[in-house]
Amino acid sequence: MRPIHFIALYSLLISLIAISLTVYDKYAAKKRPRHRTPERTLLLIGALGGAAAMYLTMRLIRHKTLHNKFMIGLPLMIAGQILVGGVAAIVFIMK
What we know:
Layout: H1 3-31, H2 39-61, H3 68-71, H4 73-94
């Protein structure tokens, strides 16, 4: 498996996990409050690469949009992930 295929597959999977957890937490907030997804878990999934998918999902379903740790933190994570990806791409190209 080429590195680009691995990265694409990882990005797809982490994005699907981020979307699923966000949608489930929105559902749990209304129907099952004792079964909420901890904010630490949501932020960890964002930091592991799901920040963009999670941020867009939160905006679309209007979930946690008043929480600065998500509405500021996730875009900062996205910027960091783009920066790391750009540096990694440059290093890979320079080989």
